[in-house]
Pirin (Zeaxanthinibacter enoshimensis), 332 residues
Amino acid sequence: MSSKIKRIYPMGFPWQTQDPFLFCVYHLDHYPKGNGEMGPDSSLQGRDLGNDFAGKDGWSMYHGKTIPGFPYHPHRGFETITIVNKGFCDHSDSLGAAGRFGQGDVQWMTAGKGVNHSEMFPLLHDDRDNPLELFQIWLNLPREKKFVEPHFKMLWHEEIPVIERKGYSVKVISGSFNDTKAPDPAPDSWAADPNNHVAIWNIHLEPGAEFRLPGAAQGVNRNLYYYEGEGLEIDGEPHEKGKAAELEPEAEILIRNGDQSSYLLLLQGRPIAEPVVKYGPFVMNTQAEIQQAMQEYRLTQFGGWPWRHPDPVHGKEEGRFALYPDGKKVVK
């Protein structure tokens, strides 16, 4: 194995990550055309509705029963970064905020001291299929930020830089690629301090392309996830789809593509290096803090749920938008 590659490992589900990341989930669903009510125009018989992760016919309902997605659920102590390359996600939360984003948009949400939110996937097209491609990355918060106020920020795709060169493109969601800087993340994020060298890049390689991954800072964790394509080489070593490579951070690495388009996700950051105790949607530093989170959620529901349904979706004709807790609405 190349000295620039620390290890190769299967990505699994969810994808294994390193500190400061907790994990990454990748969803690719080939949803059929819609039924007019933003659900699938297809029989749901044979699915474990409310817990459908089987991928029957190339798609899942997840925890949704009529519309795919994840009805309201709590989080505390970390951040979610949701990248929707294809399709749409309808967000609603316990702060009264809401939004519809997709087609390359990114939502950066700091759960902090506690928030409820739902993530539903409305099937808006009744005359054609509704493919969904989505990453959700869980980024940890350091101890000093575990109880900050919840916050979400939209990184609209028009604002996210995409570096296009001969044979490749790099979408810079976090960090900097050469001299190109991503939009600012949520303000309390570990990624908000440039000394933490957090980078999230979505990389596309055309058939036969060569791409030089620039070196990063000493001491960061750096992993490259190969989720679509065939025939890739990393520093001269064959690399299979569905596997990740932990890389030496300071090394510049040559990546050669085969005769198909390839897609990769890079996750990089300086480790927080604090104890991590996880229980479902709560990520804290001690077991006592987990017990506290569970008790507080039972008592307060982290502010309750202001929406009529546990799985709200927005109007079918609604475009991309964000409604913030202060009542400000941004329409794209």
User: Anything to note?
Assistant: The mean pLDDT is 97. The two ends are 47 Å apart (CA to CA). The first strand starts at residue 5 and ends at 10. The chain has one helix and 26 strands.
